[in-house]
Every structure is written in structure tokens, then in C-alpha cells.
Write a structure and sequence with these properties.
CATH class: Mainly Alpha
Radius of gyration: 22 Å
CATH topology: Growth Hormone, Chain: A
Structural class: mainly alpha
Number of helices: 19
CATH superfamily: MFS general substrate transporter like domains
Mean pLDDT: 82
CATH architecture: Up-down Bundle
Low-confidence stretches: 1-10, 237-247, 434-440
Order of helices and strands: HHHHHHHHHHHHHHHHHHH
Strand content: under 5%
Distance between the termini: 39 Å
Helix content: over 70%
Number of domains: 1
């Protein structure tokens, strides 16, 4: 019996209307986007608050810069495991259960970080950051929910709509660092743990929005529609199915590579920027401003990016990602440490390049999957993205401590250029297979 508990040919009565009515599908698609937008506002605040002070909290508790990248590495490592679990839960039970569970776990991790700061426990801090990573993974996976019922020409735009809503919370989170720090101090909690209070509340709110409002579940509806069309889809020849499988696998590989490279570069440079700024006399408020603008650049351009990805293609926007990340790395390396303007510009470019790469890579993954394996594949790819971020975060502190922030930034910019040969290889393979198919 299938995992959803239905025998072949059976469909839940509540979903039959959506299967039979394109108008109802379109209405649910739009409603899903509105709900995801609402939840992502909270999710963005929870994510950004922790990103802003995580490295500084570790620096304060450990007394050294060398391991300042460990917090980002830990919660991105935790997000890898969470991405796998959220993907599996979503595949079996739908987006509502998978995403809500992920946000609730992230809130639990944020509470653990607060307790660790109060107790001065490094072990509890590290364990809690792993769990806190579930919020990061879920925040990213929520972007897929809007694509479940989207048409192919709407997919990147649907992803971008979900992501742009994160901007409101993501920008508000870092801007409240000093406010939450003051509030924390007033109730006997270390100031740097204050933003995690905001993170815990925000993640709980995001989870409740999805758990209560995301009905019917768009992924379950998409699966039911796909199952209803299975007979027609299977009418093709075995040869065409094999060709489609090869194209699908290649699309997943390339989409994953684009997102992995952009994640490594972005996390590596972003992680050490607060430490670099603090070491050169910048205030916590200035750090929050720069990171807030950076996170805003990660999400705010999404609507325009999504339309560009749908209109001019995934390939060109992947090239644009590599070029923008290179420019960010060069500018960050050359910017004088006391220049707020240039550091802000570099981090804004870093966020923009990540935005281009994530949306184009996500669209490639959605194009290359079907409802029968989509959520599971998306979760697996996001594991790779999270592990890449963990590696970038862990290594960034060591590289910067043993060389310099400038060397770290330049290395990241050069690494971003790998996006171009990866996508060129994919295009070449596609052209070769197409020629062989025609000649056959």
C-alpha cells in the first residue's frame, strides 16, 4: 500500500475537487503563497537574529576568534539533518506537518542557546545550535511550498515570492539586536543571548501559521493530481522515459551544485564579517546594520530575480550569481576595515549573488522532479547545501585567523567562479544528448 495510505485509484474526497478543477488549483496556489508569505515573515526574524550574534556569542564564551565560525557551522550542520527530516516528513505527511515541525524544533534550539549563555555551558551552546539549525533548514524549505501547484513558468516567481517575504523579518531581526540585548540584560540574561529570545518566539509563530492555516496541504494536492494523471504519463515509450530520467538527474546535480557553491561563499564571508568589524572598533549596532542589509539583499530582490529566472533562464542567472559573488569578495577584501559604506556594499553584493544562485538552483531542482519524489529530493539537496554552509562557517574562522579577512574574501570570490564551468558542462551534456537523440 502507498505511504499515504491510499490504494491505487483511490483519492481523498476532499482533494477530488482540486483534481477536477484547474480554477480551484489556481486558487489554492495563490492562497498557499499568502500563507507561506505570512509564516516567512516570522521565520526570517528567527533566522536573522541568531545569525547576527551567533559568532559574537561564541567569541565571548570561548575567548578566541579562531572558533568564531563554529556557531554558524553547527547550526548549518544541524540544518542539514533537519532538512533531511523535514523533506521526509513533507513527502509522507505534506508540507504542513514537515514545516511546522521544523520551526518548532528551531524554537527549542533557541531556548537552549539562551540557557547555555545563562549557565556559561559551551556543551549546551553547541548542542542547542545544532537544534536551532532546524529553523534555518525549515525557513529555506518553505520556499518549495509555493511551487507545488505552480506552472513551470511560475516556479521561480513562486520561490521568489516566498523568499521576499522573509526580508521583513530578516531585516527586523538584526535591527533589534540592541533592543533585545537590553531586554535580556534587564531580566538577567547575557545581552548577546537576547536575539535568541526573539528567534524562539518567531519560530513558534511561523510554525503555528503553517500548522493551522495550510489546509488543504498543497503538496498532497499536487501528489493526488499527479497520481490521477499517472496513466497518461506512463503512455510514453521506455526510451523517452529513460531520456527523461537522465535529464532529471542532471538537472538535480546542476541545481544542487549551484546552490552548494553559492552557500559556501556566502556563509564563509558573512560569518567572519561581524568579528572583523568588532575587532576594528565597530559597535554592535553597526554590525547589526551591515548584517541586516546583507540579509535584506539575500531576500528583497527575490521578486525581480524570480521573474528574470523564469523569463531569461536558469543558466544566465547562474552566471550572474558567480559574477556578483566574485565582485562581493573583491570589494570585501579591498574595503578599509573602518569603512562602513564599502563593507555594507560588499555584504549587499554577497547577499544578491546568493539570491541569484539560490533561486536559479531551486528552479532547476523543481524542474527536474515530480511530486512522487519532489519533497524527498528537495530535502536531500538542502542537506548538501547545509553541509556546504557548515563547512564554510567552520573553515572561515580558521582561514581568517591564520591569514586575514581579505584573504578569506578573495578566496570566496574566486570559488564562486566555479559556477560557470558547472553550468557550461550541463549545457554541453544537454546539447550532446539532444544531438544523439536526433541522429538516432
Amino acid at each position: 500500500m502507498p505511504k499515504n495510505g491510499l490504494r491505487s485509484g483511490e483519492t481523498p474526497a476532499g482533494l477530488q475537487g482540486y483534481i477536477d478543477s484547474p480554477q480551484m488549483q489556481e486558487q489554492l496556489y495563490k492562497r498557499t503563497l499568502r500563507i507561506v508569505v505570512f509564516s516567512q515573515i516570522f521565520g526570517g526574524a528567527g533566522l536573522a537574529a541568531g545569525l547576527t550574534v551567533g559568532a559574537l556569542l561564541a567569541q565571548e564564551m570561548l575567548g578566541t576568534d579562531s572558533y568564531a565560525g563554529v556557531p554558524v557551522a553547527l547550526f548549518t550542520l544541524g540544518s542539514a539533518g533537519a532538512a533531511l527530516l523535514v523533506g521526509r516528513l513533507s513527502q509522507r505527511f505534506g508540507r504542513r506537518v514537515g514545516l511546522a515541525g521544523g520551526f518548532f524544533a528551531g524554537a527549542l534550539g533557541a531556548v537552549g542557546v539562551i540557557l547555555a549563555a545563562m549557565l556559561g555551558s559551551i556543551g549546551l551552546l553547541f548542542a542547542s545550535l545544532l537544534i536551532y539549525g532546524a529553523g534555518s533548514a525549515t525557513n529555506l524549505q518553505a520556499r518549495y511550498a509555493g511551487t507545488d501547484l505552480a506552472k513551470p513558468v511560475q516556479r521561480a516567481t513562486a520561490v521568489s515570492t516566498a523568499m521576499v517575504s522573509t526580508t521583513l523579518g530578516a531585516v527586523a531581526g538584526p535591527s533589534m539586536v540592541e533592543i533585545m540585548g537590553g531586554f535580556a540584560a534587564s531580566i538577567g540574561i547575557p545581552p548577546l543571548a537576547g536575539p535568541f529570545i526573539l528567534a524562539a518566539v518567531a519560530f513558534v509563530a511561523a510554525g503555528l501559521v503553517l500548522l493551522l492555516l495550510l489546509r488543504p496541504d498543497p503538496f498532497l494536492v499536487a501528489k493526488a493530481i499527479a497520481e490521477a494523471n499517472t496513466e497518461a504519463q506512463q503512455s510514453g515509450s521506455a526510451g523517452s522515459r529513460a531520456g527523461g530520467s537522465m535529464r532529471s538527474n542532471r538537472g538535480i546535480v546542476v541545481g544542487a551544485a549551484v546552490m552548494v557553491i553559492t552557500q559556501i561563499v556566502m556563509i564563509g564571508i558573512m560569518t567572519m564579517t561581524p568579528v572583523h568589524m568588532k575587532n576594528h572598533g565597530h559597535s554592535l549596532g553597526e554590525v547589526g546594520l551591515v548584517i541586516g542589509i546583507h540579509i535584506g539583499a539575500m531576500y528583497l530582490p527575490s521578486l525581480v530575480t524570480g521573474m528574470l529566472v523564469d523569463k531569461i533562464g536558469r543558466t544566465l542567472m547562474s552566471y550572474a550569481s558567480g559574477a556578483t559573488l566574485l565582485a562581493a569578495g573583491i570589494l570585501a577584501a579591498l574595503a578599509p576595515p573602518d569603512s562602513m559604506l564599502l563593507l555594507t556594499a560588499a555584504l549587499a553584493l554577497l547577499g544578491l549573488g546568493w539570491n541569484f544562485g539560490l533561486i536559479s538552483g531551486t528552479a532547476m531542482i523543481v524542474d527536474a522532479t515530480e511530486p512522487a519524489n519532489r519533497a524527498k529530493a528537495q530535502g536531500t539537496v538542502d542537506v548538501l547545501v547545509a553541509l556546504a554552509g557548515a563547512s564554510g562557517g567552520a573553515l572561515s574562522g580558521m582561514v581568517a585567523a591564520h591569514t586575514s579577512f581579505a584573504a578569506l574574501s578573495l578566496s570566496g570570490g574566486v570559488l564562486a567562479l566555479l559556477l560557470i564551468p558547472v553550468v557550461v558542462w550541463a549545457q554541453r551534456e544537454r546539447s550532446v544528448k539532444g544531438s544523439e537523440s536526433l541522429s538516432g
